[in-house]
From TrEMBL, chain A:
Any one GO molecular-function label of the UniProt entry: phosphate transmembrane transporter activity
GO BP annotations listed: phosphate ion transport
Subcellular locations according to the entry: Cell membrane
Boundaries of every ABC transmembrane type-1 domain copy: 103-313
Family: Belongs to the binding-protein-dependent transport system permease family. CysTW subfamily.
UniProt KW keywords: Cell membrane, Membrane, Phosphate transport, Transmembrane, Transmembrane helix, Transport
One Pfam assignment: BPD_transp_1
Lineage: Bacteria, Bacillati, Bacillota, Bacilli, Bacillales
Function noted in UniProt: Part of the binding-protein-dependent transport system for phosphate; probably responsible for the translocation of the substrate across the membrane.
Main location, first listed in the record: membrane
Protein name, per record: Phosphate transport system permease protein
UniProtKB/TrEMBL annotation, chain B:
Domain of life: Bacteria
Keyword line: Cell membrane, Membrane, Transmembrane, Transmembrane helix, Transport
UniProt source species: Pullulanibacillus pueri
Name of protein: Phosphate transport system permease protein PstA
Any Pfam family matching the protein: BPD_transp_1
Topology versus the membrane: Multi-pass membrane protein
Record's GO cellular component terms: plasma membrane
UniProt keyword Transmembrane present: yes
The ABC transmembrane type-1 domain, residue ranges: 62-280
The family this protein is said to belong to: Belongs to the binding-protein-dependent transport system permease family. CysTW subfamily.
InterPro entries in the record: MetI-like (IPR000515), MetI-like_sf (IPR035906), Phosphate_PstA (IPR005672)
Chain ranges passing through the membrane: 12-34, 66-87, 99-123, 129-149, 181-202, 266-287
GO biological process, one term: phosphate ion transmembrane transport
């Protein structure tokens, strides 16, 4: 028999343990190592949150510092690095660090992929939400999920064994270049854009559509004049997210783009992107050499662009909530 | 042009878009599976990879992929669930919470190669762990963390508020309510998310190039001490995974049968990831059924 808190009436053992189990004392340091301590739970949760902050901040700081080394210690001019086209950091006597063709390649692949993927994605999203309202979503969600799940190296392998030989056979180029890069990355960002666009179109209130139909508008008029303008900020978010994915894509592009550091003059010419040059050379340059530092600087450009994409998405979602 | 005609043309174009989407999916899946499946047999799965000769398999790579996945999940699940619980239940509405949300958003949209570079800089070079399973697993943890955080937060928010209020109303504390009421109720959703993210981790390659490495020591599958050089369980050895292997045989490899090895590996990889997807759906639905009795 134990006494309850007030010490007045004795309670049966079972009842008191129920009471102890249910009524928690306020968190105290003493109870930290007890199994059901509220405080210990809180600590565990706060540690999880803290590690997210530490990972993000240290990742950013480490990469920024490492990326700046080539400018701070190796005397490379940042303006030269960003805007000149003489990338030859491996040269023993006169290494040059003009990375413009590489940066241009990244932007070119991203823009081309977005141009290819956006109409197909938004068309599919419209099909899911406006044309086949009953079964479109059910039928196409699994398609999107399968496309999302396929690893990027598999996309690269398809590009390498199917698309590159096809282009080589039907033109007088070697097959590697911007065109296969655009197709491979375009396929990869299709599911990203489609799923977000479909969510955006779903969230358009039905009253808007009904009002348009009630005025005698056709389905296309309703889509073009009511639905698309209403969903525009969300659709832009979808496209920017797709572009962010395209910009950071590494191995699939590396397998098909040809990795030549000159500016391509047509879609059939080989090119290179930030990610492909990093993957090609990072493993076989000496740590601490200027060439190695130049690669980290390319990584810094990639990181900066990722942050810019995040800022654009934030700006778009703020606009969305305001309207 | 008549309005009706425009409408009809536009509708057909939209249907065409959906058709293209389905065609692309079927082409990719069909091409990878039909081209690769004939190279996948028992010999392929149980033979070690060859550096020079024809006829190499993928035994070690397959093991590395699964082992790395397990180690990654050991790190990711507790951290990710804790982060999700924080954002769903504990987070006060202040600047720190907003900052944590931004961090999750940033981590989720960083390219995986950037995460790989960070792993190389800190774990491989600064901590001198070299190309190792541990470096790779931590890089993959950073890459996967935001997914688990979001999944957990969404699953917890989907639990009806009344259940939580009933528990709190009985005088049960916040942590105990979380552990015994909210997390079990959210479990099917969290599990589905974890298995789906496992598929993503399994296929990831860019984050692993510079952290887990492009090579594997000759694994001795009779030697299971985690501290031995050639032990499959050693976390300080380099480990080429299946998806990295596909890239490596095509880009830096010199074997003659690289098409066979790469196609076979790709087919196996896609099949395993499809199984992960099916398992996620199936298990989630099954547990939901068990728990609700419907």
């Amino acid at each position: 028999m134990t006494l309850n808190k007030e010490g007045m009436t004795p309670l049966p053992i079972e009842q008191s343990s129920t009471r102890e189990r249910l009524i928690k004392k306020s968190p105290s340091v003493k109870g930290f190592f007890k199994r059901e301590s509220e405080l210990r739970g809180k600590w565990l949760i706060y540690c999880g949150a803290l590690i997210i902050i530490i990972a993000t901040v240290s990742l950013t700081l480490f990469l920024v510092w490492q990326g700046l080394r080539v400018f701070l210690f190796d005397g490379v001019n940042p303006i030269h690095f960003l805007f000149r086209s003489d990338w030859n950091p491996g040269d023993a006597k006169h290494p040059t660090y003009g990375a413009f063709p590489i940066i241009f390649g990244s932007f070119a692949v991203t823009a081309l992929a977005a141009i290819v993927a956006t109409p197909i994605s938004i068309g599919t999203a419209l099909f899911m939400t406006e044309i086949a309202k009953k079964w479109g979503d059910k039928a196409l969600r699994p398609v999107i999920e399968i496309l999302v799940g396929i690893p990027s190296v598999v996309y690269g392998l398809i590009g390498l064994t199917l698309i590159v030989p096809f282009i080589a056979n039907h033109s007088d180029s070697i097959g590697y270049g911007l065109l296969p890069g655009m197709i491979v990355v375009g396929m990869m960002i299709l599911p990203t854009i489609t799923s977000i666009a479909a969510d955006a179109l779903h969230s358009i209130p039905n009253e808007l559509k009904n009002a348009s139909y009630a005025l005698g508008a056709t389905r296309w008029q309703t889509i073009a004049k009511v639905i698309l303008p209403a969903a525009l900020p969300s659709l832009l978010t979808a496209v920017v997210l797709g572009m962010a994915r395209a910009f950071g894509e590494a191995l699939a592009v590396q397998m098909v783009i040809g990795n030549v550091t000159t500016i391509p003059h047509s879609l059939l010419e080989p090119a290179s992107t930030l990610t492909t040059i990093i993957t090609l050379h990072m493993g076989n340059t000496t740590t601490g050499s200027p060439f190695n530092h130049a690669l980290w600087a390319l990584g810094l450009v990639l990181l900066t662009m990722s942050y810019i994409f995040i800022l654009i998405i934030r700006y778009l979602s703020r606009r969305r909530t305001l309207s | 042009m008549r309005i009706q005609t425009v409408n009809r043309i536009a509708t057909s174009i939209i249907i065409l878009c959906a058709g293209i989407m389905v065609t692309i999916m079927l082409t990719i899946l069909g091409y990878v599976l039909f081209k690769g499946i004939r190279f996948v047999d028992w010999h392929f799965i149980t033979t070690v990879a060859s550096t020079f000769n024809v006829g190499g398999g993928i035994k070690d790579q397959l093991w590395n992929s699964f082992y790395l996945l397990v180690i990654t999940m050991v790190f990711t699940i507790p951290l990710g669930v804790a982060g999700g619980v924080y954002l769903a239940e504990y987070a006060p509405d202040n600047r720190i919470t907003a900052f944590i949300r931004s961090c999750v958003e940033i981590l989720a949209s960083l390219p995986s190669i950037v995460v790989g570079l960070f792993g190389m800089l800190v774990f491989v070079n600064t901590f001198h762990w070299g190309y190792s399973i541990l470096s790779g697993a931590i890089a993959l943890t950073i890459f996967n963390l935001p997914v688990i955080v979001r999944v957990t937060e969404d699953a917890l928010r989907a639990v009806p508020q009344e259940i939580k209020e009933a528990s709190m109303g009985l005088g049960v504390g916040q942590w105990y309510t979380m552990k015994k009421v909210l997390l079990p109720a959210a479990f099917p959703g969290i599990l589905t998310g974890i298995i789906l993210s496992a598929g993503r981790v399994f296929g990831e390659s860019a984050a692993l190039l510079f952290t887990a490495g492009l090579t594997s020591p000759d694994l001795d599958f009779t030697h299971w001490s985690p501290f031995s050089e050639n032990s499959p369980l050693n976390i300080f050895r380099s480990a080429e995974t299946l998806s990295v292997h596909i890239w490596a045989v095509n880009s830096v490899g010199i074997i003659k049968d690289k098409v066979a090895v790469a196609s076979g590996s790709a087919a196996l990889l896609v099949i395993i990831i499809l199984l992960f997807n099916l398992a996620a759906r199936g298990l989630g639905a099954l547990i939901q059924k068990r728990m609700t009795g419907k």
